[in-house]
Amino acid sequence: MRIGVLTSGGDCPGLNAVIRGAVLKGTRIHDQEFIGIREGWRGVVEGLTMPLDRHSVRGLGKQGGTILGTSRTNPFEGPLGGPENIKGTMSRLGIDALIAIGGEGTLAAAKRLTDAGLKIVGVPKTIDNDLEATDYSFGFDTAVEIATEAIDRLRTTADSHQRCMVVEVMGRHVGWIALHAGMAAGAHAILIPEQPQSIDQIAAWAVSVRDRGRAPVIVVSEGFTLNTMETPHSEKGLDAFNRPRLGGISEIIAPEIERMTGIESRATVLGHIQRGGVPSAYDRVLATRLGMAAIDSVMAGEWGTMVALRGTDLVNVPFADALSGLKQVPQARYDEAAILFG
């Protein structure tokens, strides 16, 4: 069997570890052949490939990014897109099945293609940790570590100037990164999409911190909305799947805090630094296990499913379950963190 492997959507620490785990298990145990699909779904549509064998994945587990490259291409658009064209491209390349490593957009496309008769197995990838049906996705732990270190560093300059630091992290429409990094770094308030807040409440938290002789540190997720906003802040247009590119809410909140409280305030957007660098040990292990589990799914012919983490076990779930909704921060988890605010 010849298996194509692709990484699609935003890059994420641990992608290379998934590729390595799949290729090593597939070649050693099942004598499978692999071919790398370059640039995500664009490579599937346009037939962009590269060799992928045991030699090419040597030492890959600790490397950040993805050797296959990625893109946010919609495989249903363009003259070469669509199930029938993709089937033809796969046949021409001798590809029997695909392992698609990606997040919500990637897996949604994989489901549509599987429904049209293609043989695809998914591996969940997102630093946002927002996919239903898996407890954790690789890349999340690394992103939290990077954000936590950044907040720790910003705290020292905040203390030096007695400024309020508003630190914006990724997460799209869920607040997992903000929640974990904020708690780990001892933030004085954590603002997440699941919990709209008033600017008055945010300012009150900042004043409470200042009155105790501290410099306020506030962590905000990019998808957070003030209770006066109807949609998250987005000035960067849409991606290939017509989803808004979020970002910049911290630059709205920080000036408002300064205006209302007199506390000099600064906004810092961490942005893509959270995606970069080498994966954490946890993410390397999880990603490797998921890559190996994907091979088991291929051998069992479990097309249209995604490998997922439940507790410490790996299971298979249908794409439909993984895409049934965003995995949001539960109220109890936020209430737990909120005890520490102000």
Pick out its properties.
342 residues, alpha/beta, Rossmann fold, 2 domains, 7-stranded mixed β-sheet, 4-stranded parallel β-sheet, 16% strand
Describe it for me?
This protein is α/β, with parallel strands linked by helices. The protein folds into two domains: about 1-140 and about 280-320, Rossmann fold (3-Layer(aba) Sandwich), CATH 3.40.50; about 140-275, Rossmann fold (3-Layer(aba) Sandwich), CATH 3.40.50. It is about 40% helix and about 15% strand. The chain is built from eleven helices and eleven strands. It has helices spanning about 15-30, 40-45, 85-95, 105-115, 140-160, 175-185, 200-210, 250-260, 280-300, 320, 330-340, and strands at about 1-5, 35, 50, 95-100, 120-125, 165-170, 190, 215-220, 265-270, 305-310, 315-320. The strands form two sheets. The chain has a seven-stranded mixed sheet, sandwiched between helices. Strands 7-8-6-9 form a four-stranded parallel sheet, sandwiched between helices. β7, α7 and β8 (about 215-220) form a beta-alpha-beta unit. α5 crosses α6 and α7 (about 200-210) packs across α8.
Secondary structure: elements and pairs:
Blueprint: E1 2-7, H1 15-29, E2 33-37, H2 41-46, E3 49-51, H3 83-93, E4 97-102, H4 104-115, E5 120-124, H5 140-161, E6 164-169, H6 176-185, E7 189-191, H7 199-211, E8 217-221, H8 250-261, E9 265-269, H9 281-300, E10 305-310, E11 313-318, H10 319-322, H11 331-338
Parallel strand pairs: 1-2, 1-4, 4-5, 5-10, 6-8, 6-9, 7-8
Antiparallel strand pairs: 2-3, 10-11
Helix pairs in contact: 1-9, 5-6, 7-8
Which strands sit side by side, in order, in the main sheet?
3-2-1-4-5-10-11
Name the poorly predicted regions.
none
Distance between the termini: 58 Å
Helix and strand composition category: alpha/beta
Total DSSP E strands: 11
Beta-strand content bin:
15-25%
| String of helices and strands | EHEHEHEHEHEHEHEHEHEEHH
